[in-house]
Protein: Transcriptional regulator, IclR family
Amino acid sequence: MAEQQAEKASIQVIERMMSLLDVLADLPEPASLKVLAKTSGLHPSTAHRILAAMTSTALVERHEAGTYSLGIRLLELGNIVKSRIGIRQLALPYMQQLHEVVGEAVNLGIRHEDEIIYVERTSSGRSLVRVVYLVGGRAPLHLTSVGKLFLAADGVADVRAYARRTGLPGETPHSLTRIDALEKELDKIRRHEVAYDNEEAEVGLRCVAAPIRNDEGQLVAGLSISAPTDRHNPDWVTPIKATANQISQALGYRRPLRK
Structure:
Protein backbone atom coordinates (compact mmCIF):
# COMPACT_ATOMS: atom_id res chain seq x y z
CA MET A 1 0.00 0.00 0.00
CA ALA A 2 2.76 2.40 0.95
CA GLU A 3 4.63 1.52 -2.24
CA GLN A 4 1.57 2.29 -4.37
CA GLN A 5 1.08 5.63 -2.62
CA ALA A 6 4.74 6.53 -3.20
CA GLU A 7 4.45 5.61 -6.89
CA LYS A 8 1.28 7.70 -7.24
CA ALA A 9 3.00 10.67 -5.59
CA SER A 10 6.00 10.35 -7.92
CA ILE A 11 3.77 10.31 -11.00
CA GLN A 12 1.92 13.35 -9.69
CA VAL A 13 5.18 15.26 -9.29
CA ILE A 14 6.17 14.40 -12.86
CA GLU A 15 2.77 15.55 -14.14
CA ARG A 16 3.12 18.85 -12.28
CA MET A 17 6.65 19.31 -13.57
CA MET A 18 5.45 18.79 -17.14
CA SER A 19 2.62 21.26 -16.55
CA LEU A 20 5.12 23.94 -15.54
CA LEU A 21 7.37 23.16 -18.50
CA ASP A 22 4.40 23.44 -20.87
CA VAL A 23 3.48 26.84 -19.41
CA LEU A 24 7.06 28.08 -19.74
CA ALA A 25 7.13 26.86 -23.35
CA ASP A 26 3.94 28.77 -24.15
CA LEU A 27 5.06 32.05 -22.59
CA PRO A 28 7.29 34.28 -24.78
CA GLU A 29 9.10 35.89 -21.83
CA PRO A 30 10.44 34.71 -18.46
CA ALA A 31 7.58 34.43 -15.96
CA SER A 32 7.19 34.99 -12.24
CA LEU A 33 6.27 32.30 -9.73
CA LYS A 34 2.83 33.89 -9.32
CA VAL A 35 2.11 33.71 -13.06
CA LEU A 36 3.40 30.15 -13.37
CA ALA A 37 1.40 28.92 -10.38
CA LYS A 38 -1.80 30.58 -11.59
CA THR A 39 -1.45 29.40 -15.20
CA SER A 40 -0.56 25.82 -14.26
CA GLY A 41 -3.19 25.61 -11.54
CA LEU A 42 -0.63 24.68 -8.90
CA HIS A 43 -0.32 26.06 -5.39
CA PRO A 44 2.54 28.61 -5.27
CA SER A 45 4.48 26.56 -2.69
CA THR A 46 4.19 23.43 -4.85
CA ALA A 47 5.23 25.31 -7.98
CA HIS A 48 8.18 26.87 -6.13
CA ARG A 49 9.40 23.50 -4.86
CA ILE A 50 9.25 21.89 -8.31
CA LEU A 51 10.84 24.90 -10.02
CA ALA A 52 13.69 24.78 -7.51
CA ALA A 53 14.34 21.12 -8.31
CA MET A 54 14.28 21.79 -12.05
CA THR A 55 16.54 24.80 -11.64
CA SER A 56 19.15 22.64 -9.90
CA THR A 57 19.27 20.36 -12.95
CA ALA A 58 19.24 23.21 -15.51
CA LEU A 59 15.85 22.19 -16.88
CA VAL A 60 14.70 25.64 -15.79
CA GLU A 61 16.70 28.84 -15.40
CA ARG A 62 15.97 31.30 -12.60
CA HIS A 63 16.81 34.93 -13.34
CA GLU A 64 17.88 37.68 -10.94
CA ALA A 65 14.46 39.30 -11.16
CA GLY A 66 12.94 36.13 -9.71
CA THR A 67 11.47 35.01 -13.00
CA TYR A 68 11.86 31.64 -14.69
CA SER A 69 12.46 30.38 -18.23
CA LEU A 70 13.28 27.07 -19.90
CA GLY A 71 16.83 25.91 -19.19
CA ILE A 72 19.79 24.95 -21.35
CA ARG A 73 19.52 21.28 -20.39
CA LEU A 74 16.34 20.99 -22.45
CA LEU A 75 18.25 22.21 -25.50
CA GLU A 76 20.96 19.64 -24.86
CA LEU A 77 18.44 16.83 -24.51
CA GLY A 78 16.54 18.03 -27.56
CA ASN A 79 19.69 17.97 -29.66
CA ILE A 80 20.41 14.42 -28.51
CA VAL A 81 16.93 13.28 -29.56
CA LYS A 82 17.25 15.14 -32.84
CA SER A 83 20.61 13.56 -33.61
CA ARG A 84 19.23 10.08 -33.04
CA ILE A 85 16.44 10.39 -35.55
CA GLY A 86 18.18 8.60 -38.40
CA ILE A 87 15.79 9.63 -41.13
CA ARG A 88 16.50 13.29 -40.41
CA GLN A 89 20.22 12.88 -41.05
CA LEU A 90 19.62 10.87 -44.19
CA ALA A 91 17.00 13.24 -45.60
CA LEU A 92 18.71 16.56 -44.93
CA PRO A 93 21.06 16.60 -47.98
CA TYR A 94 18.13 15.81 -50.28
CA MET A 95 16.06 18.51 -48.58
CA GLN A 96 18.80 21.06 -49.12
CA GLN A 97 19.03 20.17 -52.80
CA LEU A 98 15.27 20.57 -53.18
CA HIS A 99 15.42 23.87 -51.31
CA GLU A 100 17.98 25.18 -53.81
CA VAL A 101 15.62 24.25 -56.65
CA VAL A 102 12.37 25.72 -55.31
CA GLY A 103 13.73 28.48 -53.06
CA GLU A 104 11.14 27.81 -50.35
CA ALA A 105 11.01 26.00 -47.02
CA VAL A 106 11.25 22.21 -47.16
CA ASN A 107 9.88 20.30 -44.17
CA LEU A 108 10.31 16.75 -42.87
CA GLY A 109 7.55 15.43 -40.62
CA ILE A 110 6.86 12.20 -38.77
CA ARG A 111 3.70 10.94 -37.12
CA HIS A 112 3.23 10.78 -33.36
CA GLU A 113 -0.21 9.44 -32.48
CA ASP A 114 -2.75 11.98 -33.81
CA GLU A 115 -0.24 14.68 -34.69
CA ILE A 116 2.56 15.47 -37.08
CA ILE A 117 5.88 16.54 -35.58
CA TYR A 118 8.38 18.36 -37.77
CA VAL A 119 11.92 17.07 -37.21
CA GLU A 120 13.81 19.06 -39.85
CA ARG A 121 13.29 22.17 -41.96
CA THR A 122 15.20 24.29 -44.44
CA SER A 123 14.18 27.94 -44.16
CA SER A 124 13.36 29.98 -47.23
CA GLY A 125 14.85 33.01 -45.50
CA ARG A 126 12.15 35.28 -46.85
CA SER A 127 8.81 34.06 -45.52
CA LEU A 128 7.27 36.24 -42.83
CA VAL A 129 4.40 33.83 -42.26
CA ARG A 130 4.22 32.34 -38.77
CA VAL A 131 4.15 28.60 -39.39
CA VAL A 132 3.74 25.44 -37.35
CA TYR A 133 6.48 23.87 -39.41
CA LEU A 134 9.40 24.92 -37.23
CA VAL A 135 11.50 22.02 -35.96
CA GLY A 136 9.61 20.56 -33.02
CA GLY A 137 6.33 22.07 -34.19
CA ARG A 138 3.28 19.85 -34.28
CA ALA A 139 -0.24 19.93 -35.68
CA PRO A 140 -3.29 17.65 -36.05
CA LEU A 141 -2.94 15.22 -38.94
CA HIS A 142 -5.92 16.49 -40.95
CA LEU A 143 -4.69 20.09 -41.03
CA THR A 144 -1.37 19.52 -42.80
CA SER A 145 -0.27 18.02 -46.09
CA VAL A 146 2.16 15.63 -44.36
CA GLY A 147 -0.48 14.61 -41.83
CA LYS A 148 -2.94 13.80 -44.59
CA LEU A 149 -0.40 11.40 -46.10
CA PHE A 150 -0.51 9.36 -42.90
CA LEU A 151 -4.30 9.45 -42.72
CA ALA A 152 -4.46 8.33 -46.35
CA ALA A 153 -2.29 5.34 -45.40
CA ASP A 154 -4.86 4.35 -42.75
CA GLY A 155 -7.97 2.33 -43.45
CA VAL A 156 -11.45 3.84 -43.47
CA ALA A 157 -12.18 2.60 -39.95
CA ASP A 158 -8.97 4.13 -38.58
CA VAL A 159 -9.70 7.48 -40.24
CA ARG A 160 -13.19 7.58 -38.75
CA ALA A 161 -11.79 6.63 -35.34
CA TYR A 162 -9.32 9.52 -35.66
CA ALA A 163 -12.22 11.86 -36.50
CA ARG A 164 -14.14 10.72 -33.41
CA ARG A 165 -11.13 11.09 -31.14
CA THR A 166 -10.15 14.54 -32.30
CA GLY A 167 -13.43 16.05 -33.44
CA LEU A 168 -11.57 17.36 -36.53
CA PRO A 169 -10.90 20.84 -35.11
CA GLY A 170 -10.32 23.66 -37.59
CA GLU A 171 -7.78 26.46 -37.59
CA THR A 172 -9.00 28.45 -40.61
CA PRO A 173 -12.16 28.72 -42.75
CA HIS A 174 -10.43 26.32 -45.17
CA SER A 175 -9.83 23.51 -42.65
CA LEU A 176 -11.45 20.14 -43.37
CA THR A 177 -13.71 19.69 -40.35
CA ARG A 178 -16.23 17.23 -41.82
CA ILE A 179 -15.47 13.54 -42.21
CA ASP A 180 -17.01 13.33 -45.70
CA ALA A 181 -14.81 16.15 -46.98
CA LEU A 182 -11.74 14.61 -45.37
CA GLU A 183 -12.43 11.16 -46.82
CA LYS A 184 -12.86 12.65 -50.29
CA GLU A 185 -9.50 14.39 -49.93
CA LEU A 186 -7.79 11.21 -48.72
CA ASP A 187 -9.10 9.28 -51.74
CA LYS A 188 -7.34 11.77 -54.02
CA ILE A 189 -4.12 11.40 -52.03
CA ARG A 190 -4.20 7.60 -52.34
CA ARG A 191 -4.60 7.88 -56.11
CA HIS A 192 -1.96 10.52 -56.74
CA GLU A 193 0.47 10.01 -53.79
CA VAL A 194 0.65 13.73 -53.17
CA ALA A 195 -1.14 15.82 -50.53
CA TYR A 196 -1.96 19.50 -50.15
CA ASP A 197 -2.62 22.01 -47.40
CA ASN A 198 -4.61 24.85 -48.93
CA GLU A 199 -4.47 27.40 -46.10
CA GLU A 200 -5.96 24.80 -43.75
CA ALA A 201 -3.44 25.13 -40.91
CA GLU A 202 -2.74 28.82 -41.42
CA VAL A 203 -4.31 31.48 -43.60
CA GLY A 204 -1.90 32.62 -46.32
CA LEU A 205 0.17 29.42 -46.33
CA ARG A 206 -0.02 26.53 -48.79
CA CYS A 207 1.91 23.26 -48.80
CA VAL A 208 2.42 20.20 -50.96
CA ALA A 209 3.76 16.88 -49.61
CA ALA A 210 4.90 13.47 -50.79
CA PRO A 211 5.43 10.22 -48.82
CA ILE A 212 8.72 8.70 -47.67
CA ARG A 213 8.75 4.91 -47.25
CA ASN A 214 11.23 2.51 -45.68
CA ASP A 215 12.60 -0.78 -46.98
CA GLU A 216 9.39 -2.54 -45.94
CA GLY A 217 7.21 -0.10 -47.85
CA GLN A 218 5.90 1.51 -44.69
CA LEU A 219 5.16 5.24 -44.62
CA VAL A 220 7.69 6.63 -42.13
CA ALA A 221 7.75 10.36 -42.92
CA GLY A 222 6.46 13.04 -45.22
CA LEU A 223 8.33 15.70 -47.16
CA SER A 224 6.65 19.01 -47.88
CA ILE A 225 7.26 22.42 -49.43
CA SER A 226 5.55 25.32 -47.66
CA ALA A 227 5.23 28.85 -48.98
CA PRO A 228 2.94 31.87 -48.82
CA THR A 229 -0.05 31.44 -51.09
CA ASP A 230 1.11 34.03 -53.60
CA ARG A 231 4.38 32.12 -54.10
CA HIS A 232 2.93 28.62 -54.28
CA ASN A 233 3.77 26.85 -57.54
CA PRO A 234 1.70 23.85 -58.73
CA ASP A 235 4.76 22.60 -60.62
CA TRP A 236 6.38 21.68 -57.29
CA VAL A 237 4.54 18.35 -57.40
CA THR A 238 7.21 16.85 -59.65
CA PRO A 239 10.30 17.78 -57.58
CA ILE A 240 8.69 17.00 -54.21
CA LYS A 241 7.70 13.52 -55.36
CA ALA A 242 11.11 12.93 -56.93
CA THR A 243 12.96 14.00 -53.80
CA ALA A 244 10.72 11.94 -51.50
CA ASN A 245 11.35 8.95 -53.77
CA GLN A 246 15.13 9.51 -53.58
CA ILE A 247 14.98 9.52 -49.79
CA SER A 248 12.80 6.39 -49.84
CA GLN A 249 15.29 4.62 -52.07
CA ALA A 250 18.11 5.64 -49.73
CA LEU A 251 16.11 3.95 -46.96
CA GLY A 252 15.96 0.79 -49.05
CA TYR A 253 12.51 1.19 -50.55
CA ARG A 254 11.88 -0.31 -53.94
CA ARG A 255 8.61 0.47 -55.69
CA PRO A 256 6.69 -2.72 -56.54
CA LEU A 257 6.58 -3.61 -60.23
CA ARG A 258 3.21 -3.00 -61.81
CA LYS A 259 1.43 -6.16 -62.92
